[in-house]
Write a structure and sequence with these properties.
The protein is of the alpha+beta class. Helix content is 35%, strand content 17%. The radius of gyration is 43 Å and the shape is elongated.
Length: 204
């Protein structure tokens, strides 16, 4: 017995893309795929921008944390400061001091030199104004301070001859920390070993 299939079943089927419906589906899938790719790329771009901003902000924060303040040096020039209570780093040289407690005191009482006073700051010298210059070491600083305060050429001998017990006391940057902050001055004071008072300006 012979079985014949319908003639329609034997015909080759058309490709889906050859039909109007197939082409519409293909174009729709292509557009959808393109939109997905564009969306992914846009998301990646925005994520990258956000990460870059966060990184930049983190960098700014780090820079702020390691920012080093500028070194500030004492003035140490001009005329002596006027009478009053002054911090040690405001003295300039030539000031007469009442109630002198030592060269390393934090504050000094400045008075006019015509009245009796306990000491006089004969000179004040800054050892360095270069912020990057390293601390020379305690022993070297002491040696330079001692030489700086050999002030015989700065004293009015006519006035000084009435005292036979004049001595020199001096302060200096005693540590690397002080040096780094700009505290690099040597301050040379003249006073009497007996504890007696001075009167008049000893600076020549």
């Amino acid at each position: 017995m012979t079985t014949e299939e319908p003639q329609e079943a034997l015909r080759p089927r058309k490709r889906l893309t050859s039909t109007a419906t197939g082409q519409s589906i293909f174009i729709g899938l292509w557009i959808l795929g393109t939109l997905v790719i564009v969306t992914v790329l846009a998301g990646a771009f925005l994520l990258g921008q956000s990460f870059s901003r966060d990184s930049a902000e983190d960098s700014e924060i780090v820079l702020e944390e390691v920012d080093v303040p500028a070194v500030e040096f004492p003035t140490l020039h001009g005329v002596p400061i006027e009478p009053g209570q002054w911090p040690w780093d405001e003295l300039r040289g030539g000031e007469c001091i009442s109630g002198f407690a030592g060269a390393f005191a934090e504050e000094f009482t400045v008075v006019v030199c015509d009245v009796p006073h306990d000491a006089q700051l004969i000179t004040a010298v800054l050892l360095s104004r270069r912020a990057e210059e390293p601390f020379p070491g305690h022993d070297d600083v002491v040696q330079v301070a001692r030489e700086t305060c050999e002030v015989t050429d700065r004293i009015d001998y006519t006035l000084a001859t009435q005292y036979d017990d004049l001595i020199v006391d001096y302060s200096y940057p005693a540590s690397e920390e002080q040096w780094a902050k700009g505290e690099r001055g040597v301050y040379c004071f003249v006073l009497r070993s007996s504890g007696g008072t001075l009167q008049g300006d000893l600076v020549d």
